[in-house]
């Protein structure tokens, strides 16, 4: 499937809204639900095949899809996506993933949405869906969005969220500004990072949705488990496939050999790229969607050798004990033998 531009406009200095539609020869995606993420596939500046996931914010009756995309700089993959869309080249869709939609929260009484930075796109999609299904006064429902941003001007749809706060009795907005100074604070907007121990919530949340950077997500998970241990937690994190290695994690050599069960030819691979990137570069078919350690599609069993793992959000302790790894979150340290599962 391929999507092309219908319209676009800037939301902040770095964030743009894109309204996209399928090309005439594309099939309609029946599983496209706001909150799920579309896997964009394209050729990057280095001429390699890339994938990035973006949350579907909303969908209209004409099957137009709305996305919010932050441009992270002229050398970033997001800038390439901006150019492809604004030049009407379009973008290919490899698949749809994600498990957090309106269905995730619709039966919950008290929902807490925690978002850091561009992670706000998923909560926005959920709030839009709530506005469709709930009346202005929805008895017994409390949806609270707590967001963390460096400055007010960086927040997309801030005015609309403030309007929702005033308009819908079931919705509460809390904004935490971490860098720029505020002339004044209010019940809605305050300085500082999110502190769940002191944050005012409308009742005790039974469902918590967390979306943001890996560090933000891990911090919020700890806070929720400490302050609201009874709550069901749902997390979503999007990031680059190229995880930066610290000095203490430097690999012993630049190249290794990987042997994939049921494939005859050993592969020479780059230790500074993920196992997933290496397999794709060598045309080894492997399932993958999110590229971020969330969906669990790219599992493999390590038969021999060792890998460096970065944190993920989906492997169980049982899977780890069985030497199951995620290709998008692991780097080869030695020659390895693997089996795709």
In short:
This protein is α/β, with parallel strands linked by helices. Helices cover 18% and strands 33% of the residues. The chain contains seven helices and 20 strands.
Topology diagram in text:
Layout: E1 2-10, E2 15-22, E3 37-43, E4 49-55, E5 58-59, E6 65-70, H1 77-86, E7 91-97, H2 102-105, E8 110-116, H3 121-133, E9 142-149, H4 158-167, E10 171-177, E11 189-191, E12 207-211, H5 214-227, E13 232-236, E14 255-260, E15 267-270, H6 275-281, E16 299-304, E17 307-309, H7 317-321, E18 324-326, E19 330-332, E20 336-340
Parallel strand pairs: 8-9, 8-12, 9-10, 10-11, 12-13, 14-20
Antiparallel strand pairs: 1-2, 1-7, 2-6, 3-4, 3-7, 5-6, 14-15, 16-18, 16-20, 17-19
Pfam families: Fer2, NAD_binding_6
Keywords: Oxidoreductase
Protein name: 2Fe-2S iron-sulfur cluster-binding protein
Describe what this molecule looks like in 3D.
- This protein has 341 residues and is α/β, with parallel strands linked by helices.
- Helix content is 18%, strand content 33%.
- It has 7 helices and 20 strands.
- The protein has helices spanning 77-86, 102-105, 121-133, 158-167, 214-227, 275-281, 317-321; strands spanning 2-10, 15-22, 37-43, 49-55, 58-59, 65-70, 91-97, 110-116, 142-149, 171-177, 189-191, 207-211, 232-236, 255-260, 267-270, 299-304, 307-309, 324-326, 330-332, 336-340.
- The strands form 4 sheets. Strands 4-3-7-1-2-6-5 form a 7-stranded antiparallel sheet. Strands 11-10-9-8-12-13 form a 6-stranded parallel sheet, with helices on both faces. The protein has a 5-stranded mixed sheet with strand order 15-14-20-16-18.
- The longest helix is centred in the middle third of the chain and has 14 residues, at 214-227.
- It starts with a strand and ends with a strand.
- Residues 240-251 have low confidence and may be disordered.
């Amino acid at each position: 499937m391929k999507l092309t531009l219908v319209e676009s406009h800037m939301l902040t200095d770095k964030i743009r809204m894109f309204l996209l539609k399928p090309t005439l020869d594309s099939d309609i995606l029946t599983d496209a639900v706001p909150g799920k993420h579309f896997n964009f596939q394209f050729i990057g500046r280095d001429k390699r095949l890339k994938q990035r996931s973006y949350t579907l914010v909303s969908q209209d009756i004409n099957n137009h899809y709305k996305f919010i995309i932050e441009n992270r700089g002229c050398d970033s993959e997001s800038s390439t996506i901006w150019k492809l869309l604004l030049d009407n080249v379009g973008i290919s869709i490899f698949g749809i993933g994600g498990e957090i939609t309106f269905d995730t929260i619709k039966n919950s009484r008290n929902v807490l949405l925690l978002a850091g930075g561009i992670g706000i796109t998923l909560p926005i999609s959920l709030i839009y869906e709530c506005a469709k299904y709930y009346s202005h006064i929805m008895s017994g429902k409390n949806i609270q969005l707590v967001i963390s941003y460096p400055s007010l001007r960086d927040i997309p749809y801030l005015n609309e969220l403030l309007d929702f706060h005033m308009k819908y009795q079931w919705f509460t907005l809390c904004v935490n500004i971490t860098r720029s100074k505020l002339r004044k604070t209010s019940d809605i907007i305050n300085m500082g990072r999110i502190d769940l121990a002191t944050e005012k919530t409308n009742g005790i949340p039974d469902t918590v949705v967390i979306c943001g950077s890996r560090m933000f997500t891990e911090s919020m998970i700890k806070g929720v488990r400490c302050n609201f241990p009874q709550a069901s937690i749902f997390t979503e994190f999007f990031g680059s496939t190229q995880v930066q290695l610290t000095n203490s994690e430097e690999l012993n050599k630049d190249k290794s050999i990987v042997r994939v069960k049921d494939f005859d030819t050993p592969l020479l691979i780059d230790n500074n790229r993920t196992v997933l990137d290496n397999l794709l570069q060598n045309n080894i078919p492997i399932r993958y969607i999110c590229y971020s350690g969330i969906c669990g599609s790219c599992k493999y069993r390590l038969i021999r050798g060792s890998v460096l793992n970065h944190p993920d959000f989906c492997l169980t302790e049982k899977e780890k004990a069985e030497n199951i790894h995620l290709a998008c979150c692991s780097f080869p340290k030695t020659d390895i033998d693997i089996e795709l599962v």
